[in-house]
Amino acid sequence: MIKPFDFYFDFISPYSFLAHKEIRKIENKASIKIKYRPILLGGLHNLHGIKAPAFIPAKAKHMIRDCKLIAERNNVKFKFNSYFPIRTLNLMRGVFVAEEDNMKSYYINSIFDSIWQDGLNMNDENIIQKVLKNLSINPKTFTLRASSSSIKDALKKRTSDAYEKGIFGAPSFIINNKIFWGQDRIEFVLKEASK
Questions:
Q1: Per-residue pLDDT at 60
Q2: How many CB atoms lie within 10 A of CB 71?
Q3: Which residues contact 4 (CB under 8 A, 6 or more apart)?
Q4: Is 21 part of a structural domain of the chain?
Q5: What element of type H or E holds 172?
Q6: What's the number of domains the chain is made of?
Q7: Helices (H), the chain
Q8: Alpha-carbon gap, residue 9 to 13, rounded angstroms
Q9: CA-CA distance, 168 to 166, in Å (whole number)?
Q10: Rounded distance between C-alpha atoms, residue 89 and residue 41, angstroms
């Protein structure tokens, strides 16, 4: 039996998207719910004083090719977003609002797909509103709730908690008090979750 584990992610990370697709398969196969933990990756990097690979030209070039290879291997539709980097602060806050409305799973899936499958410009407020409307969400109300101090504080706290635990990138997983970093560590996560 596989125990649920924590999945730390940010929509800005294509590797988080690829991990998300694998996690959905695992959830369906094992009839479990993985604990999705939204963080702000830029904030986490700032706390650690590190620069994201996507902003180092040589690494960024490799990252795009690498993501495409992983997507092909796993039969996942993937398109590196031409509007990258996507400003995900409000989108990540939205995860907490969606959780309050019991639609966290739908919201996460839709935002990930909008960025990394459909290649939408999720920096454009009009496009974000269309995506929210497709989920039967009132964009104005949703945005107001996402900008509330309680939601802002929730994302800050989740990010600082991740930092305190030693998480430095996304995706990251925690199971049995052990951290696994990277989309390519899922098999090790599952092995640990089976103990």
A1: 81
A2: 20
A3: 32, 33, 34, 35, 193
A4: yes
A5: strand 172-175
A6: 1
A7: 14-30, 41-48, 57-73, 89-100, 104-116, 125-134, 139-146, 149-165, 186-193
A8: 7
A9: 6
A10: 9
What is the model's pLDDT at position 185? 95
Residue 14 · residue 112 · CB < 8 Å: no
Tokens, residue 186? 């899922």
> Among residues 44, 21, 14, 13, which one has the least CA distance to residue 186?
21
For position 160, which CATH number holds? 3.40.30.10
Predicted local confidence at residue 56, as pLDDT: 84
Measured CA distances, 159 to 25, 46, 97 (Å): 26, 11, 16
- DSSP letter at 84? P
Question: Taking the model in full, what pTM does it have?
Answer: 0.95
Which positions of the chain have pLDDT values less than 70? none
Flag whether 1 is in a domain: no
Instruction: Please give the single-letter amino acid code of residue 47.
Output: L
Domain that holds residue 111: 6-193
Q: Is 13 exposed, middle or buried (0-12, 13-18, 19+ CB in 10 A)?
A: buried
pLDDT computed for residue 144 by the predictor: 96
- Give the C-alpha separation, 36 to 105, whole Å: 9
Examine residue 58 and state whether it is found in any structural domain, yes or no.
Answer: yes
Residue 24 lies in a domain: yes
Sheet containing 172-175: order of strands: 35-38, 6-9, 172-175, 178-181
